[in-house]
Write a structure and sequence with these properties.
Layout: E1 2-6, E2 16-19, E3 29-39, H1 41-48, E4 58-59, E5 63-71, E6 83-87, E7 98-102, E8 106-108, H2 115-120, H3 122-135, E9 143-147, H4 152-163, E10 167-172, H5 177-182, E11 187-190, E12 203-208, E13 222-230, H6 237-242, E14 246-249, H7 256-267, E15 275-280, H8 283-295, E16 301-305
Parallel strand pairs: 9-10, 9-12, 10-11, 12-13, 13-14, 15-16
Antiparallel strand pairs: 1-2, 1-4, 3-5, 3-7, 3-16, 5-6, 6-8
Helix pairs in contact: 3-4
């Protein structure tokens, strides 16, 4: 079976086409024929060796978008032929023609989404939804600051926060201002024209999708008892105590419930997907995608088309 991944950790040049064993189905899982997947920052971090104990070859990728072709005897919610989307708890194995996945890590694809759109939703969408809805528990009294508002997670965060009733200020580059406005941000900031730490307003919550040393400058912008969640860097516990706020680095816990909510938000057009570029399912294609996402400043999502017939 064709897959893309690495035989050893390193740069994007280590990415290569692999011939791996076709997955087998267990009683609680399904086999999905992949039509598309997406490329996330986590992928290049794993490629570089973030989890050094992985066994080679390592097939990268988290996002599932395709059609069920086999199912285990305990799978009752899905049928062969169903279009599904999802995210693997292992955060890998989806740069492949087929993937085995537990039934509780997938959901039916939104009826108004093609395979590419469905591939762009799971990891980034679950990340935004779980952090803003479940962990921050945003409501209409909250004022949220999104750092990195034009990225894959950031754009979903803006839309979900607005759905939850919050007032949203989004930070990004000069060429991403309109994109963040279109996503629903009440205010957008070009960080080169106005450094975030110079803002005169305060926020009840901050969602940091970028990380870096400038994160420390965010703490004075939080109201007392406010919350800073980061998907990119561990926040300073010392600064959190100093400013009487909570702060944490978060990792997602994918669930069928969250995928169900994402599906409903997309079908109601509350949530839209911005795909900035599509790459072929080839060695060169995945190398180009990793090169682009490593540089940062990606707007929306990068997806990889695995099957040519997207509208099957």
């Amino acid at each position: 079976m064709k897959a893309l991944g690495v035989q050893r950790f390193g740069s994007k040049d280590e990415l290569t086409e692999l011939e791996v064993t076709h997955p087998t189905v267990n009683e609680d899982a399904v086999i999905v024929e992949q039509y598309a997947t997406s490329v996330n920052p986590l992928d290049f971090k794993l490629r570089e060796g973030k989890k050094p104990d992985l066994d080679f070859p390592v097939v990268l990728g988290s996002d599932i978008s395709g059609i069920i072709v086999e199912k285990g005897e305990n799978v009752t919610k899905f049928s062969i032929g169903d279009r599904v989307f999802g995210v693997t708890a292992k955060s890998r194995q989806t740069y492949a023609a087929y993937v085995s996945v537990p039934q509780d890590q997938i959901f039916r694809s939104p009826v108004n989404a093609g395979f590419l759109e469905a591939a762009a939703l799971p990891l980034a969408g679950v990340t935004a939804l779980q952090n803003l809805q479940d962990r921050m528990q945003l409501t209409d009294v909250d004022r949220l600051l999104v750092i990195g508002g034009a990225g894959g997670v950031g754009l979903f965060a803006i839309q979900i926060a607005k759905h939850l009733g919050a007032t949203v200020t989004a930070v990004g580059s000069s060429d991403s201002q309109q994109l963040m406005k279109d996503a629903g941000a009440d205010e957008v900031i070009d960080y080169k024209q106005q450094p975030v730490h110079t803002l005169s307003k305060t926020f009840t919550a901050i969602f940091d999708c970028v990380g870096g040393s400038s994160q420390d400058e965010l703490f004075p912008l939080l109201e007392r008892d406010g919350c800073l969640l980061s998907i990119a860097r561990d926040p300073s516990e010392q600064l959190a105590r100093k400013h009487s706020v909570t702060a944490a680095f978060t990792a997602i816990s994918p669930s069928q419930s969250l995928l169900s909510k994402l599906c409903a938000l997309y079908e109601s057009e509350t949530l839209t997907v911005h795909i900035s570029e599509t790459f072929p399912f080839t060695e060169r294609g995945v190398q180009d995608a990793h090169e682009k996402i490593e540089k940062g400043h990606t707007k929306g999502k990068l997806v990889m088309k695995i099957q040519e017939d997207e509208e099957r």
